[in-house]
Design a protein that fits this description.
heterodimer, A: alpha+beta, 8-stranded antiparallel sheet, 6-stranded antiparallel sheet, 14 strands, B: 297 residues, alpha/beta, Rossmann fold, 2 domains, 8-stranded mixed sheet, 10 helices, 30% helix
Chain lengths: 281, 297
């Protein structure tokens, strides 16, 4: 058995062979970061942006019912399993794994270093029950629990902790909150970032915290951001933007914290000070 | 001097000046210019019989829809006359399709197109129908005419996958165009393998996907039997019309304005930044033929 087949086989052990009368259909399929586009099309880039290592897909079939498709991602680390889960938080929260949402025939959850997506080709009452049952079986087959990224603990309580996005890539940042066409914050595989929100539309305040590999990298990113985004700053690292709101940035050691859409300079400074106090550098 | 970097603040500036944009910015004025002579024609054809009872494409109805659409587009009385407006017997023709497993272009559409292309006099060996194989396909490499046909669907990176985006397989690294919600997809249309060759853009709205979820960005809950096809020569106008229909369906389904996530800005930018075609409804002559019930536009 080759290495890929062994890895796929090792992930397949988390799947049950049957759930509520749905049984395994065909052989499990395995994909890596190069082949994922054969299976998922353009959105495969999301999983690559979270450094995923392997995906195993299994199909379940039951006569007279829609097929169920289980996609099991080994993300390499718990942080990235959590991160890819935060990419799409739309749906009803359910108690499966370490965080789960259900919507329109799709159940997704994360646990340990794994992200799991369970999908019914059509949503029915029975397929929903089967998906939830399948999720619980897979959850119980994964013995360990993972730790959420430490970065999240630096987000002040005034932000919605349930909707934080965690990521590495400039592409993912722009998907959730467009900052710049260019990667002016020097995001990449060796950085980690958390984007948090507070308030309701259209007055949502955004907080972005980024950890760089070292302090000089953080300073370089600060200069790049300041030059591209706030060249007209009246005072260092604080600017009023065209929508009359305020953007501010602060560096501490390996970290940058940026506040977007603050209502006032005072609000921006207070939030950044709060983040600064929490960061243990 | 280094080129200016486009940031969120540039969007905020545009939002601030938008009410006056047509009056004060020459670059925007043309977009909103009115007048029948300036309008680009897009045909929306619908047929109640386009799908069978199982939701499969009905080949007979599809052929008729495409025939009616190209005749209406070019103002001709027969399909043959209409096709001769864009293809001559000596052409080499690549039909760019889409093989996405949940919503492929489909055999009925491919066969309907091939039939009419061959009737013009193009021999079978000078016709190729493919999606992901375009770069290695000898017919596509030598193509003098491209026909672009794919289903409309929401898309994780582009907002909507439509005719503009369908040419992404002509580049070796498609994901390189995902930045900023695929803002510069239209630049692909400047490649020598595409530029000036695409004579017809066909956006299938037989069972469009109006909302995407999960890794596969698909749920059967979010497709509906619209039974329509948009046809035009301008890919931007065709896509811009398709987006309006998807948005209208989202409003109807969700009961509130739910903008595409991400916004399909690449379509507007294909007009305003890259000048590939027109995106404003004011500059599009939309011809509606066939079934009108729940047309949404």
């Amino acid at each position: 058995m080759g290495r890929k087949a062994k890895e796929a086989n090792s992930l397949s052990r988390f799947f049950p062979v049957e759930i509520n009368g749905w049984r395994v259909e065909g052989r499990d399929e395995s994909y890596d970061p190069q082949s994922i586009f054969d299976y998922i099309d353009g959105a495969g880039e999301v999983y690559r942006a979270y450094n995923f290592e392997r995906l195993v897909a299994r199909r379940y079939r039951k006569d007279g019912e829609p097929d169920l498709i289980a996609d099991f991602f080994d993300m390499g680390t718990a942080s990235d399993a959590f991160g890819v889960f935060t990419h799409d938080l739309e749906g009803e929260t359910v108690e499966i794994g370490q965080g789960a949402v259900y919507k329109g025939g799709l159940l997704s959850f994360w646990k340990d270093r794994y992200f799991v997506s369970l999908y019914a080709e059509a949503e029915t009452a029975t397929s929903k029950q089967a998906l939830l049952g399948l999720g619980k079986e897979i959850d119980s087959a994964i013995p360990a629990r993972g730790k959420k990224p430490v970065l999240l603990s630096y987000v002040p309580d005034s932000f919605d902790l349930k909707t934080i996005r965690y990521f590495h890539s400039h592409l993912i940042l722009n998907y959730h909150f467009f900052v710049s066409v260019e990667n002016i914050l020097h995001l990449g595989p060796d950085t980690e970032a958390a984007l948090a929100s507070s308030g309701d539309k259209p007055d949502i305040v955004r907080l972005l915290i980024i950890r760089y590999p070292d302090a000089p990298s953080a300073v370089l990113a600060l200069r790049s951001f300041a030059k591209a985004y706030m060249p007209d700053a009246g005072e260092p690292e604080l600017v009023q933007t065209e929508d009359k709101n305020w953007t501010a940035v602060k560096n501490k050691g390996d970290y940058l914290a940026i506040i977007f859409n603050a209502r006032s300079p005072d609000q921006a400074r207070k939030i950044l000070a709060s983040v600064g106090e929490k960061i243990v550098d | 001097m280094p080129e200016k970097i486009f940031t969120r603040r540039d969007f905020l500036k545009m939002a601030a000046i938008a009410p006056l944009a047509g009056a004060v910015k020459p670059g925007f004025a043309g977009v909103f210019e009115k007048g029948p002579a300036d309008k680009v024609r897009v045909v929306l054809v619908r047929d109640k019989e386009a799908l069978d009872s199982a939701g499969r494409h009905n080949p007979g109805a599809i052929q008729k829809m495409l025939d009616d659409a190209v005749m209406a587009l070019f103002g001709e009385k027969t399909p043959a006359e209409a096709w001769r407006r864009i293809i001559k017997p000596s052409d080499t023709v690549g039909v760019k399709t889409n093989v996405w497993s949940y919503l492929p272009t489909g055999r009925a559409v491919e066969e309907a197109l091939k039939k009419r292309i061959m009737e013009v006099g193009v021999s079978e060996e000078r016709i190729s129908i493919t999606d992901r194989g375009v770069l290695g396909d000898r017919v596509f490499q030598n193509a003098t005419v491209l026909i672009n046909a794919r289903p409309a669907r929401t898309h994780h990176w582009a907002g909507m996958g439509g005719c503009i985006k369908n040419m992404i397989m002509f580049v070796p690294a498609p994901w390189a165009y995902h930045a900023d919600a695929c803002a510069d997809l239209a630049t692909i249309w400047n490649l020598p393998s595409i530029k000036g060759k695409t004579r017809l853009n066909i956006l299938l709205l037989l069972t469009p996907l109006f909302h995407g979820i999960g890794p596969h960005h698909y749920s059967a809950q979010y497709v509906w039997p619209y039974k329509g096809i948009l046809v035009g020569q301008d890919p931007v106008a065709v896509d811009a019309t398709g987006v309006r229909i998807l948005q209208a369906k989202r409003l109807q389904f969700f009961g509130e304005e739910r903008p595409l996530q991400p916004p399909a800005q690449h379509i507007v930018l294909a007009d305003t930044r890259h000048h590939l075609g027109v995106s404003s409804p004011d500059r599009i002559e939309l011809v509606k033929i066939g079934w009108q019930e729940n047309i949404l536009i």
